[in-house]
């Protein structure tokens, strides 16, 4: 079945000015913005309830120059944030789009707080790799589930219709690539057709499509996929069929710290605050501070595609602000011991090797030295008993490449012109991480979901209001 139906003059069952496909953070933010611009909105969600990749994340949105940073004494700016994004992504993203996204992130988070009541705060007790300031903002539980539930609640409170169990199967367009409507399928196999004036694609990337992952990210073709299974690349395939430009399709967010076999995300604070990762031989194998995205491939290269993250009680106290970490503790995924030798016994790691590794790390910390992998250690981050460990694997979280968009989130053709009435946000759009896993700066996924979602919704709503 063709993803695009070309049929001018078609009659549809009913009409909604702005249709949004996907009810994760990108789609719900777009819906709030479109309604604020004066448009009637319909959100279509393939699942029984809105969850998506947002619910699987830590729910953290990086933003610069916010009031929460000011209250915490954190100096930051949009220009500094943009520079961090570009540096992490090796200068690959479009600098103009990066500057716009960095500038709009703070206002977007404050808008969600002030207009829609989301109780954000900034994480001020640890830093993420690549960020020159502490700018991660999240809700109290530090969970993506809380974020998507809060956004859904905000949309429902404003009477925005969210139609769940509605999987879009085709887009209808005229000969000039103007979108006319969508066909959606219900769980019982029945179909409905909806006419529209503006369409926002907020249905993420292609991480759940094994064929597309194999084609564009072959190094993670066999990796654990920790994203949402509904991310089948629909937006990418629709856009390509309409002649849209694509960019950085190999770009993605990996994560080198998913508890195995529990399948729970373990916060990277376990590393940035002084923890390390060792393989089944009890040896370190990389510079863990490069970032959790590129660490996924490093972990997957180890024996049995596993590693152990080792930290201490001080770090565990920081990690407990995250709901995921508390869940991991509750089910016994976190191993605790009073000595390195006892920790080796509990994890099954070779005692001599583990003791030697941890001794080397502590010596490096005391000296404030840099190891052979290039990791610089700090004297104030020594590990002390009791020690903790969690077995982890590497995973693919979501893709970062996608449809090329402009500063209003309009989808562009290869010649730089925009398609008549199509917008993309979140994983459906090409993000700001470049073409490599190492280009992913912590929070880039929700950054483009929220900021591009707001930009897309505002532009689509204004076009029909």
From TrEMBL:
The cofactor(s) it depends on are:
FAD
Task: Cite a single GO MF annotation.
Answer: oxidoreductase activity
Write down the PANTHER family for this protein, in alphabetical order.
3-OXOSTEROID 1-DEHYDROGENASE, FUMARATE REDUCTASE
What Pfam families does the database record attribute to this sequence?
Answer: FAD_binding_2 (PF00890)
Entry's InterPro entries? FAD-dep_OxRdtase_2_FAD-bd, FAD-oxidoreductase_2, FAD/NAD-bd_sf, Succ_DH/fumarate_Rdtase_cat_sf
- The species is Azorhizobium caulinodans (strain ATCC 43989 / DSM 5975 / JCM 20966 / LMG 6465 / NBRC 14845 / NCIMB 13405 / ORS 571)
Which keywords does UniProt give here? FAD, Flavoprotein, Membrane, Oxidoreductase, Transmembrane, Transmembrane helix
Provide the FAD-dependent oxidoreductase 2 FAD-binding domain boundaries.
Answer: 18-437
Name of the protein in its database record: Fumarate reductase
Annotated membrane-spanning segments are: 12-34
Please provide the Gene Ontology terms (biological process) for this protein: steroid metabolic process
